[in-house]
Amino acid sequence: MTKPGTTADADLLAAVRAGDTAAYGTLYERHRPAARHLAFSLTRDPSDADDLVAETFAKVFASLRAGRGPLTAFRAYLNTTLRHVCYHRARRDRRIQFTDDLSPYDEGESFPDPTLDRLERTYAARAFAQLPERWQDVLWMTEVEGAGPAEVAPRLGLTPNAVAALAHRAREGLRRGYLQQHVATVEHPECQWTGDRFGAHVRNRLAPRDAARVHAHLAWCAECRKRLADLCESNTTHHRLYRQRHGNERRY
Length: 252
Fold this sequence. Notes:
Strand content: under 5%
Pfam families: Sigma70_r2, Sigma70_r4_2, zf-HC2
Shape: globular
Number of domains: 3
Keywords: DNA-binding, Sigma factor, Transcription, Transcription regulation
CATH architecture of the largest domain: Orthogonal Bundle
Number of strands: 0
CATH superfamily of the largest domain: RNA polymerase sigma factor, region 2, helix turn helix motif
Family: Belongs to the sigma-70 factor family. ECF subfamily.
Structural class: mainly alpha
Largest sheet: none
Distance between the termini: 45 Å
Number of helices: 12
Radius of gyration: 21 Å
GO molecular function: DNA binding; sigma factor activity
Domain Putative zinc-finger: 191-225
């Protein structure tokens, strides 16, 4: 909430778009403490947290100067951007290869990144919470409790075949929702409409008319093409990790 006598965030955002860099300085001073608090929840290293905050504010400033970014709700947009910066930095660091040793020639062991894992769990939990209650129930029984369709059927009042079909739809819905959590909120209505369907697009679950509209938008919007490329990489990485952890199960 804006204090009495201070300029509202929406007015400051409009001023930044008009070229007033001092207005962005006001936004920075107003929201930096909250951003730093969030950064510390994602990484415990003070220098890493400060780097996250600095990079996030720089990215948001660049978006505003390019005519993109938020019109209102600056802090929500800033926090979303910070989480995505953290996520992509963790993924980038995972891909770094050192050339002064022989590690590229040794398969070695894969060690999880705590920051990346925390973000992934957050995205998965949000996606699960957005599923219909019946889908949540069948996923919990089959994926968490490890029960088979025959065990679950009496509890849901379904046949085993119906349970298997329901579980398949629920898993697909969870995958789409999980991917969708990686997509940052944007202000342009057509970019938002397109981004809201990226999860289904990556999973090839869009209706033909929606798919045509998404492709038409991507033909001219470079920013959305970049967001989609990041999401496709996330989908590939998640799929590979799932295979490694659970084996090549047909149900996935």
